[in-house]
Amino acid sequence: MAQPYVFMGGTFDPVHNGHLRTALELQQWLQVARVHLIPSGAPVHRDSPGCTADERLAMLQLATDDEPALTVDAREVESDKASYTLFTLESLRAELGADTPIVMIMGMDAYQTLPSWYEWRAFIDYCHILVVARPGYRPDPSPELAELTEKHLATTPEQLWQTAAGSIVFHELTPLGISATQVRDLIATGASPRYLLPDPVWHYIQSHHLYGLTS
Ligand code: ATP
Ligand code: MG
C-alpha cells in the first residue's frame, strides 16, 4: 500500500500556529513524509474571507517554506470550479489512483458541521477522516453524523495505512485555542497577533495592509 496522502483543507484566513502545529504533529503521528495544506478558492461554507485567495495562498507558502514536512497544494485556488470538498476528493482520487489512502484532517468544529456540506455522505468512500480535538468544541454530533461516525470508527491509525478510505479516527494533540477569527479581530482592534502565527505571515499582513490594517 502506498503512503497515505494526508491533507488539511481550510480557508487559512490567515494561516496560524493552530493549523501548522496540528499538521506537523499529525505528520509525525501518522509517520508520513508530509501533510498537504489545501486553501479553499471561493469558499462555499462561510462568508468571504478578509483577503484574496492568492493572498491566503502566499501566506501559507511563507508559513511552510522552511518546513519540508508541510506543503501547500494549490488545486482549489487554481481551479475555476467552486471549492466543494467533493470535487477536491474526486481530483485527488483520480490523481493518486484507487489504492493510495487519502486522509482528510478536520478540526472538531468543522466535523460537527459536516452534514451541511455538499454530498457529505460520499466523502468516506474517497478518504479516511481524521478528526482532531479543538479547544472549545466538545463532540456533539447530530444523529446523522453520530450514525456515520459509529459505522466507520477506527481506533488505531494503522487503519489509515491499510485501506484507501472508509475509516474515521479521532485524535488529540497539543491543544491550541488559536483561530483565524481571533487573529483578524486582534488586528481590527489595533492589537498585535504576534506569536499566534509565524512572523513572516504577520509581516506579509502588515506590508499588504490586510484585515483592515492601516499603518
Ligand atoms: P476561522 O476562525 O476564520 O473559521 P479557523 O482558525 O477555524 O478560521 P479554518 O481555515 O476555518 O481556520 O480551519 C481549517 C481547518 O483547521 C479546520 O478543519 C479547523 O477545524 C482546523 N483548525 C483550525 N484551527 C485549529 C486549532 N487551533 N486546532 C485544531 N484544528 C484547527
Ligand atoms: Mg474555521
Overall description:
The structure is a single chain. With 215 residues, this protein is an alpha/beta fold. It has one domain (5-176): Rossmann fold (3-Layer(aba) Sandwich), CATH 3.40.50.620. Helix content is 39%, strand content 13%. The protein is built from ten helices and six strands. It has helices at 17-30, 53-64, 75-78, 85-96, 108-112, 123-126, 143-152, 159-162, 180-188, 199-207, and strands at residues 5-10, 35-39, 70-72, 102-107, 128-132, 168-171. The chain has a six-stranded parallel β-sheet, sandwiched between helices. Helix 2 (53-64) links the parallel strand 2 (35-39) and strand 3 (70-72). Helix 2 (53-64) packs antiparallel against helix 10. The model has no long low-confidence stretch (mean pLDDT 94). The structure holds adenosine-5'-triphosphate (ATP) and magnesium ion (MG). Adenosine-5'-triphosphate (ATP) is lined by residues 8, 10-13, 18-19, 22, 106-107, 109-110, 132, 134, 176, 178-181.
**Beta strands, count:** 6
The number of helical segments is 10
How far is the first residue's CA from the last residue's CA? 52 Å
Mean pLDDT: 94
The 3D shape can be described as globular
**Poorly predicted parts:** none
Percent helix, as a range, is: 25-40%
- The H/E string reads EHEHEHHEHHEHHEHH
- Pairing-aware structural class of the strands and helices? alpha/beta
Proper CATH architecture: 3-Layer(aba) Sandwich
Q: Which sequence of strands runs across the widest sheet?
A: 3-2-1-4-5-6
CATH superfamily: HUPs
Give the C-alpha Rg. 17 Å
Small ligands present = adenosine-5'-triphosphate, magnesium ion
Can you identify the CATH class? Answer: Alpha Beta
Count of the domains: 1
Query: What fraction strand?
Result: 5-15%
Biggest pleated-sheet summary: 6 strands, parallel
CATH topology, by name, is: Rossmann fold
